[in-house]
Amino acid sequence: MQETDPPPPEGRVPNLAFGGAPTIRDVARIADVSIGTASKALNAGGRLSQETRDKVLRVAREIGYRPNDLAQSLHRAKSRTIGIISNDSFGRFTFPIVEALEERLAEEGMAVFMCNATDDPARERQHLDQLLGKRIDALVVTARRADKRAPIGPLAHGLPVIYVFSQADDPNALSLLPDDEGGAVLAVAHLAALGRKRIAHVTGPEHFEAVRLRRKGYRSVLAEAGLPEIEGFYLSGVWSEAWGREAAARLFSGPQTPDAIFCGNDQIARGACDTLREIGLAIPADVAIVGFDNWDVMVLAARPPLTSIDMNLKALGREAGDSVLEMIAGRKLSGVRRRPCSLVVRASSKP
Length: 351
What we know:
Residues 22-76 form the HTH lacI-type domain. The chain has 12 helices and 14 strands.
């Protein structure tokens, strides 16, 4: 007698060979329903019995059916994808933002496409065209500096756009930024609370808006605390450890020397620490130091570990995700929103 394969267990779909990837027609045929019914079940739509819906979903799962995302996006006029264009080639500021943004959007079943424009207008235009060709539902623009830029475009009419750690020179655009001035206030108020009376500020280039805002915060705390702005205690240079070393050497070669230094970023602060050790000063006993950015690579490797201002970039990214979802749903959002920073105290300024 000729042997035959045993019938599949009840409730299981037999292994069937397909000429290519399984289609919705295959799902409908095996589940013994119409293509329309299969479509409703797969898209959680229509009025179907739970038994029919479960049967279609089980068949689709067991034969490995995957819906055609492009076809679905055309059908519902939504791709459930978000485009991101950044010019932060190092990813120092963008990566935490994008990580949190992607996590928030994934909760809603949405995906992201990220492109790096590397400060090249032609490349940005190319990436924008490609993203628009993918029918993205919204666009997020990020950068390695929060200064104003020309609005990105041209865009598809009505496409939601949000700038994160970047801002458009357009009052109708939505920009999410860390509060640089508020962060500086936290840093200098912390030093003043330690009893420091001669607080210097070493920072980056003044054409950065963040530098100007942080200096404003520094000066406001000195004024409120009744502390002097000592001549030569404000030094502007570049964002580097080398500048931090050079600036610290200048500060301690004059007639008055500081008992605290607020640095515009962690690289400058780490360089300043190097110089202080070389000239025999103890941190924080002789000089307390606070940086800005709370960049783990810098603050934890410094000796001693650096107190720093955290810009809470992940919180900024998550808020960007919430805002994107609101804008896709039709809400109009605009203006510049500056979000609070946090002070992270470590050994460089502990009492």
